[in-house]
Amino acid sequence: MNLVYADEQGNLFDHPDYLALGRSGEMVVELLEDELIPLPEGATLVGLPFTRPVGLNAETGRMELLPGELQAVGALLPQGFTRLALPGYVKSDKTQKLPLFGYSAVVWKDGKFYVAAHQSDDPEPWNPLNCDRKELGIQVERLLAKYPENRLIKHLSNCALGYECLTASNTFMNRLEGAVPVSYSCNAGCFGCISEQPDDSGFPAPQTRMNFRPTADEVVDIMLEHLKGPDSIISFGQGCEGEPSTQVKIIVEAMRRVRSLNSQGYININTNAGLTDFIRAIVDAGLDLMRVSTISAIDEHYNAYYKPRGYTLANVEKSLKYASEKGVYTSINYLIFPGVTDREEEIEAMIGFAKRTGLRLIQMRNLNIDPESYLELIPKAKGEIYGMKQMLEIFESELPDVVIGSYTHIPPVRA
């Protein structure tokens, strides 16, 4: 398992004299053979700026920094894969923050790249290589021409073509889960938010948040265009917006109008679920699926990351429980991080949370964050750190009725 590193020009190399290492939280750890899988199709290898690679000297058995102006290398995994370890590195400039991506440990082994990861779901539906960019351009132009006054379609065209967002692209391609963003405001101040950052955060937001409130007509146009098959999903709550339930009136009106005309497909909301009364109204309007974003079932950790405004984790739990009891297929968008999510206290808290709320699906999502900044923000570990692979095994054992996956699925049987 040779160490992989990059030079200043971004060229990749493997080092035959150093074994690759990973990180679990703040700890540099050895990688195990059963944690490695071949680099998945659609993954990207990137250099980590302002870092130095750490390897295990094969001759001395000691952990060492590679000499010279070199960078550590990480893999950005496609949907369907859960990372088990971060790359082995130290910051060469501790004042600098890494771009907001989810970096995974990568090694060179048997003549090819491997990553420390577990396949949690079928990667094919969300493989970016399966999106025909030429056909996407044609379909974008078709909808722009059909709805020239619809600002949402113009907004989504930039998400699809500019940011290459697959959910936005699906909206135009009439496939899988499509996007219908509605909100420019949010009731949380997430650390490392991908669409809006305070000027002094040190994190450049990788995409721009929408800056207008759509009309119900604009929302209905998109929903009716996408909900044309029994397996289609249209989703409120995208990376380019704030919290969708803050626009509850628009959502409820649009849902009721669409369902008066069309019973096809599924309506989903991706939400922090903090506004329980608003979530109840959306559920009662005919919601089919709900995915709730969380990073922890422990208040101190949750609050440090989300910085909730006017709600608590207890509100999130109430919203999920209400939706589950009303027949909504509920899941969580679980933001995971090696060395944190696999802590003993985190595992115990999440198992209890899942059982109390009637969760049906846990979507394991690699947290896009600068590791040092995140670890400084959250509580220190109180119990044993089990490792990500064992954590997944514990969830499967303790939550036999909960699917462990990576993205939104339609229910196996419609509720």
Strand content: 25-35%
Low-confidence stretches: none
| Structural class determined from secondary elements | alpha+beta
DSSP, total strands: 20
Helix coverage percent: 25-40%
First-last Cα distance: 47 Å
The coarse silhouette is globular
Number of H- or I-type helical stretches: 11
> What summary fits the major beta sheet?
13 strands, antiparallel
Gyration radius, in Å: 22 Å
Mean pLDDT: 94
Descriptive account of the structure:
With 415 residues, the protein is of the alpha+beta class. The protein is built from 11 helices and 20 strands. The protein has helices spanning 133-146, 151-161, 166-173, 216-226, 248-261, 276-284, 299-306, 313-325, 344-357, 371-377, 388-398, and strands at residues 2-6, 12-24, 27-30, 36-38, 44-48, 51-57, 63-65, 71-76, 81-83, 86-87, 89-91, 103-109, 112-119, 177-179, 233-236, 266-271, 289-294, 329-336, 361-366, 403-405.
Summarize the structure.
The protein is an alpha+beta fold and 415 residues long. It has eleven helices and 20 strands. It has helices at 133-146, 151-161, 166-173, 216-226, 248-261, 276-284, 299-306, 313-325, 344-357, 371-377, 388-398, and strands at residues 2-6, 12-24, 27-30, 36-38, 44-48, 51-57, 63-65, 71-76, 81-83, 86-87, 89-91, 103-109, 112-119, 177-179, 233-236, 266-271, 289-294, 329-336, 361-366, 403-405.
Q: How would the blueprint of this fold be written?
A:
Elements: E1 2-6, E2 12-24, E3 27-30, E4 36-38, E5 44-48, E6 51-57, E7 63-65, E8 71-76, E9 81-83, E10 86-87, E11 89-91, E12 103-109, E13 112-119, H1 133-146, H2 151-161, H3 166-173, E14 177-179, H4 216-226, E15 233-236, H5 248-261, E16 266-271, H6 276-284, E17 289-294, H7 299-306, H8 313-325, E18 329-336, H9 344-357, E19 361-366, H10 371-377, H11 388-398, E20 403-405
Parallel strand pairs: 14-15, 15-16, 16-17, 17-18, 18-19, 19-20
Antiparallel strand pairs: 1-2, 1-8, 1-12, 2-3, 2-6, 2-10, 4-13, 5-8, 6-7, 6-11, 8-12, 9-13, 12-13
Helix pairs in contact: 1-2, 2-3, 4-5, 5-6, 6-8
